[in-house]
Design goal:
The chain is of the alpha/beta class. It folds into four domains: about 120 residues, no CATH class; about 70 residues, no CATH class; about 45 residues, no CATH class; about 200 residues, Uracil-DNA glycosylase-like domain (Uracil-DNA Glycosylase, subunit E, 3-Layer(aba) Sandwich), CATH 3.40.470. It is globular, with a radius of gyration of 29 Å.
Length: about 475
């Protein structure tokens, strides 16, 4: 390829990042100067201006030179910057890639005008992706098969749907949904993620029966004392408001905020109320109807005994050997467990696996479950932070746990942490009073208690961490010996 022969490079679509990186690497290896390359993108209006060079296209044709290697720092920024709606983004990216051949550290020079512009494109796309995950609102519709599905309308600034759709697939894995946008649409049927061309807003539903309940909830939790309209509009720009069911409440609630805040300050303090005792588990009857662990796994997704199901991705049943001699009970699923639907697969699970291996226990021959079957958390930015389940939530799930253990009939049950012990015993007790003892349960099983593996992850002092690890191994070794007698 002559370095200055005109080349028209066609990409398959606005989000064809891999296609750009592949073709750019081949063009660089062949010595194609940036001024001799015109980028054409299928589906973008800017494509017409590149047709001047349409006779000499670089797509899949052979090149003698091997593809050049693009630096990781460049590829990392390009993965988002190339999703920007700026029609000149490909030309800018290729110029940077060309300059990197002689200046390998170019991407670290923040004062360089082209590097700064490319980083700004990436930042804008990252922000657009964050807004999509935050402000998509699904509305329930009737599916063609008579079931339910959920549809949302969103208007992204950039070509982010394909890159952001996997987030929604993980978060809403157990429901059928579609996200419609003018640029691209994503559809999930519970098994397959499909992308389709952009849609018109008229194809999206205007509302559903749940929205009035959501609006009432939003108004109830609106805190006038913490209102900061500047911060609110900075985090939630007004362009998103028209697609949010609660948006028309913001202005009237904001107008009344000062008066409501003054009323709150003037009001007398509310007397403390004694908490009512936790009710008996309402899950017991449903659980008793299950004759196998498989039936429990099938019935659990329909459990509505507490509100945790509303926010968790999915229920997480126990798993393992159907007639294991050793059962391990944790507190509740964590973030990774909630996304995968399996118990103890996150950081605490990896600690548990290492400990079991050290004491000679094959995890596949044990039964592992949790006292509470849904993930309880509080959102902090993009993260979901574990929140300890309350007595009512433990009681609401207790029937499922009891039935799981009745079906497995292990020789010994190990409670990992105080929450698991409270669920097994039917009452709270200090872990220090239970540790090292074998305790008979009401259903005829025997229990030992130790710390939850996540406790070991939270210990910061190295010596205390080592001591905690040794004590945890001792507890599991004792449990293994008891389960084998």
């Amino acid at each position: 390829m002559n370095a200055h022969s005109l080349r028209s490079v066609r990409l398959d679509g606005p989000a064809d990042v891999d296609g750009f990186l592949d073709r750019a690497a081949r063009l660089l290896a062949a010595g194609a100067h940036p001024e001799a390359v015109a980028w054409r993108v299928a589906g973008e209006r800017a494509e017409a201006q590149s047709d001047l060079f349409a006779g000499d296209e670089v797509r899949d044709g052979p090149l003698v030179a091997p593809a050049a290697r693009l630096p990781a720092a460049f590829r990392e920024i390009a993965a988002r910057a190339l999703l920007h709606s700026d029609a000149t983004r490909h030309a800018l990216a290729y110029r940077l890639a060309w300059r990197l051949r002689r200046a390998p550290q170019l991407m670290s020079i923040a004062t360089d005008a082209e590097v700064a512009r490319f980083a700004a494109l990436s930042k804008s796309v990252r922000r657009d992706m964050h807004k999509m995950t935050a402000f998509v609102r699904f509305r329930r519709v009737a599916a063609p098969d008579g079931g339910e599905a959920f549809v949302a309308w969103f208007e992204p600034d950039h070509h982010i749907v394909e890159a952001t759709a996997p987030f929604f697939k993980r978060r809403f894995a157990n429901m059928r949904w579609s996200i419609l946008t003018p640029r691209r649409c994503a559809h999930w049927d519970g098994a397959t993620l499909v992308l389709s061309p952009g849609a018109d807003k008229r194809n999206a539903p205007d509302g559903d029966a749940l929205e009035e309940a959501w609006r009432a909830y939003y108004a109830a939790i609106f805190n006038p004392a913490r209102l900061n309209l500047a911060a609110m509009t900075r985090e939630m720009p007004r362009k998103y408001w028209r697609n949010l069911p609660e948006a028309d409440l913001i202005a009237p609630l904001a107008r009344k905020a000062s008066a409501r805040a003054a009323d709150m300050v003037a009001a007398a303090p509310t007397p403390a109320r004694r908490s009512a005792p936790a009710a008996a588990s309402p899950s017991r009857a449903a659980a008793e109807a299950c004759g196998s662990l498989a039936e429990i796994s099938g019935a659990l997704p329909g459990c509505r005994n507490c509100d945790l199901f509303r926010h968790a991705t999915q229920v997480v049943p126990g798993e393992g050997a159907a007639h294991a001699r050793l059962a391990l009970v944790g507190e509740q699923p964590g973030d990774e467990e909630d996304l995968s639907g399996r118990p103890f697969v996150g950081p605490a699970g990896r600690v548990l696996n290492a400990a079991l291996e050290r004491v000679g226990v094959d995890r596949s021959q044990t039964f592992v479950t949790n006292a509470v079957k849904h993930f309880k958390f509080e959102p902090r930015g993009k993260k979901r932070i574990h929140k300890k389940p309350g007595a009512r939530e433990i009681a609401a799930c207790r029937g499922w746990l009891v039935r799981e253990l009745e079906l497995v009939r292990p020789r010994l049950v190990v409670a990992l942490g105080a929450t698991a012990a409270a669920s097994l015993l039917g009452k709270a007790a200090p872990l220090r009073d239970l540790r090292g003892r074998t305790i008979g349960l009401a259903n005829g099983l025997e229990m030992r208690a130790t710390v939850h593996p996540s406790y070991l992850l939270r210990i910061e002092d190295p010596d205390a961490k080592k001591a905690g690890w040794r004590a945890f191994l001792d507890d599991l070794a004792a449990a293994r010996e008891l389960s084998e007698t």
